Amino acid sequence: MPTPSSQPFCASSIIGTGSYMPAKVLTNDDLSKIVDTSDEWITTRTGIKERRIAAPDEATSDMAAEAARRAMADAGVSAEDIQLIIVATVTPDMFFPSTACFVQKKIGAVNAVCFDVSAACSGFLYALQVARHFINTGNRITALVIGAEKLSSLVNWQDRNTCVLFGDGAGAVVIRRACENEPEAQGRVLSTVMGSDGNLTDLLKVPGGASACPITPENVASRPNTIHMEGRETFKHAVTRMLEASQQALEMAGLSAKDVSLVIPHQANARIIGAIADRLGLPEEKVFMNLDKYGNTSAATIPVALDEARRAGRIKKGDVVLLVAFGGGFTWASSVVRW
After folding, report:
1. What is the DSSP letter of 111?
2. pLDDT at 139
3. Which of 13-27, 134-148, 257-271 shows the lowest mean pLDDT across its residues?
4. Are 225 and 323 members of one domain?
5. With 80 as the cut, is the pLDDT of residue 2 above it?
6. I want to staple 8 with a disulfide (CB 3.0 to 4.6 A). Which of 92, 179, 193, 291 is the partner?
7. 266 catalytic residue (yes or no)
C-alpha cells in the first residue's frame, strides 16, 4: 500500500456538460402586451431579447433531470456511476424533499447522495465547490452538479422592472476525481473563490412564502412570494464583487486575465458583463453571452452557457475558462477551469 505522501494528488475535472431549455419562448414583444414595456426598453437596458418559460406541469426537477441525462451522455457515464447529486436552485419543487432527490428518482441514480444548495445566482459555483470537497477528500469519485430554476414561478408579471429579466432552464456538469498522474484529464477545476454579505439581504429577495413571512389572506395581494430587487444597488455590487472574485480565483490558480481564453459570466445584464470584461481587459470575443436568448436563469446561467460554449467549439483543449457569478444574499463566486 502506498503511504499517504506517495499517493498522487487528486483534484476534480468536469468531464461532461448538458443543458435543457423549455420549449416556450417569451419575447420582449410578447411582454409588451402584458406590461408597460417595449423591446427597445428591455434590450437597451438589459441586452435580453427573449426568455424560455417552463410549461405549467414542468417542475424544476424535470428540467434538471433532462440536463443531467445530457451531461451523463456527454461524459459517458451511467446513472449508477453517480455518487453525489447537488442541485443549486432557489425554485425547488417543494420545500422538501430536496429537488436533488427528485432528480435521483427520475434518472435512476440509486447510488447517489442528494441535497440542494441555495445561493441564488451563485448557486451553481457554490455547488461545484461543495462537490469538489467531496471528491478531493476521496469520499466520492463521480458527481452531478446541476443549476436549475423555474423563475417564472416567482415573477410578478405586473412589475416591469423585474418580470422582463428572468427565465427558466437547467444546466448540469459531471465532475470526476482527476489525479496528477492523469495528464489527459480535461476540465480540471483549478480554483474557486466564494463570498457573501448578509448585510445586503434586502436588496434582492423573495420576502414571502417561508417561515419569516407566510402567505396569508391579508398579505397575498401584495405578492410577497415574488422577486423584489433594488436594481441600481444590485448592479453596483455585482460589478465590484464579480471583478474581485475573478481576480482572486485567477491569482489562486497562478494565472492572470491575459491567460483567460474565455470568460463565462452570470447572464444577468449585458451592461454588468461588459463592465467586468472591460475592467479585466478582455476583448468581446473572449466573453460568452447567451443572455439575449434566455435572460437571467439564476443558478442555471453558467452551466447552460458552459454547455453551449463547449458544443459551439468556443472551448478547446488547453483553454483557461473563467466562470463568475453574483446573486442574492448577496453571494458571489468564481472558478478557473483548464480544459
Report:
1. T
2. 79
3. 134-148
4. yes
5. no
6. 179
7. yes
Query: How many domains does the chain fold into?
Result: 2
Whether residues 296 and 203 share a domain: the answer is yes
**Are the CB atoms for 89 and 58 separated by under 8 Å?**
no
Domain that residue 239 falls in: 188-338
12 shares a domain with 160: yes
Query: What would the pLDDT profile of 16-42 be if each residue is shown by its tens digit?
Result: 999 999 999 999 999 999 999 999 999
Give the CA count within 13 Å in the CB-facing half-sphere of 62: 10
Residue 76 sits in a domain whose CATH number is 3.40.47.10
The answer to whether the beta carbons of residues 91 and 60 sit under 8 Å apart is yes
Same structural domain, 208 and 226: yes
Q: Cell triple for residue 137? A: 477528500
Domain identity same for 89 and 200: no
- Indicate if 33 and 175 belong to the same structural domain: yes
Active-site residue identified among 10, 101, 114, 121: 121
Cα distance from N-terminal residue to C-terminal residue, the chain: 32
Give the span between the Cα atoms of 229 and 303, in whole angstroms. 24
**Which residue out of 28, 114, 225, 266 is catalytically annotated?**
266
Catalytic residue among 225, 269, 290, 296: 296
pLDDT in tens, 197-251: 999 999 999 999 999 999 999 999 999 999 999 989 999 999 999 999 999 999 9
In single-letter form, the type of residue at position 148 comes to A
* Same domain, residue pair 280 and 262: yes
Q: Are residues 225 and 159 in the same domain?
A: no
Domain termination residue (choose one: 112, 144, 179): 179
Residues in Cβ contact with 296 at an 8 Å cutoff, skipping those fewer than 6 apart: 48, 121, 151, 165, 166, 167, 266, 267, 268, 269
pLDDT (mean) for 84-109: 98
121 is known as an active-site residue: yes
Q: From CA 143, how far away is CA 174, in angstroms rounded? A: 6
pLDDT in tens, 160-206: 999 999 999 999 999 999 865 555 568 999 999 999 999 999 999 99
Catalytic status, residue 114: no
